[in-house]
Amino acid sequence: MNATRERLLDAAERLYAERGLDAVSLREIVQAAGARNATAVQYHFGDRAGIVRAILARHAPEIEARRHALLDAYEADGVPGGRALAGALVRPMAACLGDASGRAFLQVWADAVNRPRPLVTFAGLDDPPEPAAGGEPSRPRPDSLCRWRNLVEPVLEEDAARLHRRFTAILYTATELARRARSGPRTDDRLFTSYLIDVVAAILGAPVSDETRRLADERDAARR
């Protein structure tokens, strides 16, 4: 493990959480990390998007494992349900509220996704291969968020799906977890987490009104 790289990640994670992605320069990250080379960030990460991806990648293994386990349980249960799927979205991220690095990560994640053009891609890219039995070629394991999206789709109304209801749920989850992270640490996040799951389940299950359906039809017709 490269010590300079880790110090840069520590500094970037902390500064981005404190001030936001757009208010911190690469030079400030280098100075906060105590790196001697002024271009240390560029050397290790390339650019701002690269160091943000590295911050997210730090926390990805635990989040992926937790979400896959919840989705495995959901599929094994065989009973479609919005709250169980809402929990699979929320709980793996909410577990990050328990430590300072996790809380910083949640704020970075929300800042990166909550913009007209997300700074980084979160799902479906660069999944590590999953070993196959019997020496067969490895098959890529699906990103847990992509898997979640696929499992949610049959639960949604058709019009809710075309209006990007899943992204709405993801964005709301990111925003609320970041807000909680900024106000932490707390001794107990269970009530917050359970209520957030309730709200996300309501977002996924909310009916599409006749007015919204009509306006969506008009929008789609204008695009043809």
Automatic annotation (TrEMBL):
Q: Which terms does the record give in the GO molecular function aspect?
A: DNA-binding transcription factor activity; transcription cis-regulatory region binding
Listed A to Z, the keywords are: DNA-binding, Transcription, Transcription regulation
The transmembrane residues are none
Domain HTH tetR-type, which positions? Answer: 2-63
Q: Which domain of life is it from?
A: Bacteria
The name of this protein is TetR family transcriptional regulator
Region Disordered, as annotated, extends over 123-144
Q: Which Pfam families has this protein been placed in?
A: TetR_N
